[in-house]
Amino acid sequence: MTQYNNTRLLKALKRQTVDVPPVWLMRQAGRYLPEYRALRAKAGDFLTLCQTPQLATEVTLQPLQRFDLDAAILFSDILTIPHAMGLGLSFEEGEGPCFKKRIETLRDVKSLPIPEVEDELGYVPEAVRMIQHELQGRVPLIGFAGSPWTVACYMIEGRSHKNFITARKMAHQAPEILTALLEKLMKATTAYLKGQILAGVDVVMLFDTWGGLLTPAHYELFSLSSMQKVVANLKSDPSTAHIPIILFSKGAAIHLEAMAQSGADALGVDWTVALSAARERVGATICLQGNLDPALLFSTPQKIRLAVKNLLDEWGSHPGLIVNLGHGIEQDTPIENVQALVSAVHEKRG
């Protein structure tokens, strides 16, 4: 078992006492870093960056070379699974992800294979092994996957969309197609996360970016239920049961109580609900992660430090806090403001 120099994240996930709360940031390796932009230009395109383990390792480690973060997060993309299923993923400049084929019928769903992780997705566990070799126990490594509902949105729409109306229509018009797709994605996601765990990640996170688009009934039926199955599968497998799981549904704060019953060890919280209010609602039996507004990082270092102070003061001395943003860092975020956030958390030591 790896001995870590920095155990704040692992302790917080167990709701144990830490000197200061751990801090890491969603999308901490990304376009706001000049070294990332240079490496992406060298790689030629985003998919090559994701699918080349040496490059993915370098990107994963870039933010740790600048900031005193308490975790690394694997550099990859939530759409690796449908790409491995044969839908033909590409990333168009200014357009985001696009698929050559999209899911429209039950026949389309039935034709999808469940990828073998060490074969069709082998570049991901290989990157995990490389990253852990480079980290040498410095900080824990977080692996991740998109939630079945979020990944399904792209597969049904065929591209990114502000409200994924085609996927939401399917939920009303042809729920049997959506249910079948989510079941297949649930199995693929479970296998994918298990592959990351066996390769060496210390924590896994489910990103449910588009759960907040659904009606309350559809959220529980199509988004939360599939994530619960992934969590239950990992927790019931002796080879993965020991790994903490973070569940994050953006824009779904009204469902916090239901999310807390998912079996996950921690919930990501976005900036639309105060962390203290979230804690009152879910109790002290689950860790909370969040929840600074990414737009805060466009203010000043002084305002950022004050916001961090207010968040930590509001939380108090309770265990089980992971400081993070309520979603990913925006691409034009000033680097000095990211530094101010991380430093402000760690200055609370003692």
Structure description:
- The chain is of the alpha/beta class and 350 residues long.
- 47% of the residues lie in helices and 12% in strands.
- The chain has a 7-stranded parallel beta sheet with strand order 1-4-5-6-7-8-9.
- The protein has 15 helices and 9 strands.
- The chain is globular, with a radius of gyration of 19 Å.
- The model has no long low-confidence stretch (mean pLDDT 96).
- It has one domain: TIM Barrel.
- The protein has helices at 8-13, 34-43, 46-51, 53-66, 80-84, 106-110, 123-135, 148-157, 165-173, 175-199, 216-236, 256-260, 275-282, 301-315, 335-346, and strands at 72-73, 89-92, 96-99, 141-146, 203-208, 245-249, 266-269, 287-292, 321-325.
Question: Secondary-structure map with pairings?
Answer:
Layout: H1 8-13, H2 34-43, H3 46-51, H4 53-66, E1 72-73, H5 80-84, E2 89-92, E3 96-99, H6 106-110, H7 123-135, E4 141-146, H8 148-157, H9 165-173, H10 175-199, E5 203-208, H11 216-236, E6 245-249, H12 256-260, E7 266-269, H13 275-282, E8 287-292, H14 301-315, E9 321-325, H15 335-346
Parallel strand pairs: 1-4, 4-5, 5-6, 6-7, 7-8, 8-9
Antiparallel strand pairs: 2-3
At a glance:
This protein has 350 residues and is of the alpha/beta class. It is built from 15 helices and 9 strands. The protein has a 7-stranded parallel β-sheet.
Helicity, as a percent range: 40-55%
Number of domains: 1
Q: What is the distance, rounded to the nearest whole angstrom, between the alpha carbons of the first and last residues?
A: 29 Å
Shape: globular
Structural class determined from secondary elements: alpha/beta
Summarize the main sheet.
Answer: 7 strands, parallel
Identify low-pLDDT runs: none
